[in-house]
Every structure is written in structure tokens, then in C-alpha cells.
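dumping this here before i forget
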Amino acid sequence: MDVIIASNEQEAGRIAAAHIAHALRGIERPVLGVATGSSPLSTYEDLGRRIKEGSLDLSQARAFALDEYVGIPADNPLSYADTIRTTVTEPLGFDPANVRTPDGMADDIAAGAKEYDEAIKAAGGIDVQILGIGNNGHIGFNEPGSSLVSRTRQVCLTRETREANARYFDDPADVPTHAVSQGLGTIMEARKVVLVALGEQKAAAIAAACEGPMGAHCPATLLQMHPDAVIVVDEAAGSQLQRKDYYADVQRLMPEDQRVVD
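structure:
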């Protein structure tokens, strides 16, 4: 796991986008795992800049969203399908037919979740999975206590997660209690993971994920076992890390042929 501390949100987005673009280089039809939330927005903006400059082309890429609320139609502005459309599909030039979100309105949620996992495998697996992190350490909607080998499935959202997401709803009581989420086992199969975290409210979760003991109490700690995971944070989100000097040295002393640059 590489930990990179950026000076601000824009630099974090630039660094994360550089790692994503580098990982996709030379792949004719790449597969991205995409996340919602505020943390990845600067990353998507920088990917958009690269597309406009001609250094990146995602027109043939495929994408699979991490999760979706149960009970909210895909055309509802509060759905993650709609969020992905407005923050990823349209601004980054994806073919909408190549972008999928879990179906939170399926008659058989379990069958739909299983098919989603199978669709990812049929696409050849995810080349780069973009992640945010919840204040309680969840990735996707894999709440604390989730099986470390879980697959895409219906999950129950914790009260803490629902309270954090209530800002998007007119009435906190309208926040769904359940979602369909890629499992931790599904996420770990991605060939590269890029997690972005911004703000002081994420500092405790980042410290636990990067430096705490691995376990279901903080699902993001599983990324310590991933062979190619990059954690990009701003100074606020990295404020509780104990090994900041070491992470800086790793980047400073990295051989030139191993550095990811624009």
C-alpha cells in the first residue's frame, strides 16, 4: 500500500488521476470501477482535463459502479446511477451503454447482485477501482463487520452512514436503509485500487485503514493486503497518520522508472 499526502484537494485529484491514467496506458478497452461521493470529484475533474488535452481516451472504456441504494429508481437524482451519469459518464465521454450500476430496484436483488459480479468477470475484471472511504472505514457500502471475502450483495446501512448521507435528502427519514454493494472480495480482485480521501472527518478512518490492525472492524484495512493499492489524501485527511515522514520518503526516494508522473 502506497500512501501519498497531497497539499490540497486539487493536488490529490491530480495525483490520483495520474495513477489511474498510468495504469490504463496501453489497455485498448479498459474497465474502471467508479465511486460516488465528494472525495473522487477532483479526480474525475482531472481525468476530464487529460481527456480534453488528448492524453487519455475513455470512449471505449467500460465502468462498473461500486453501489446503489435499494428502492431508488435509476432516473431519480438521488440514485447513484444518476450521480455516475453526471459525474463520470457524460463528462468523461463514456458510452452510456458501457456503464453499469447495481440494480437497486430488481425484483430479485440477490440474483441481480450475483449477475453483477459475473458481468465484471465477463468484462475481464476491473483494471482500476476508484474508492472513497466512509467515516467508519467502509469502502463501497461494506460496513464494519462485513465479510472480508464478501461478493456483491444487498447490505444494511449503519445508522452512522445514513446520518452522513442525510445531507443529500430533504428528510433524513428518506435515506434508504439498504443498498447493493460490490463486496470486499469483489473489490480486492481489481488489478489496481486508488482510494481518495479528503477532509478532517476522514482522518480517523484513514489512520485506521493504513496503520491499524487488519480486520472487519475497519473494512478498508483489507487494502493493506492488496498488491497495488494507492491511498491519496489531503493534509486534513492524513492528519492522524503516524508515519507521514516515512510516506514522504517513499515517494521522494522512489526510483525514477517507478514514479508515476503526468
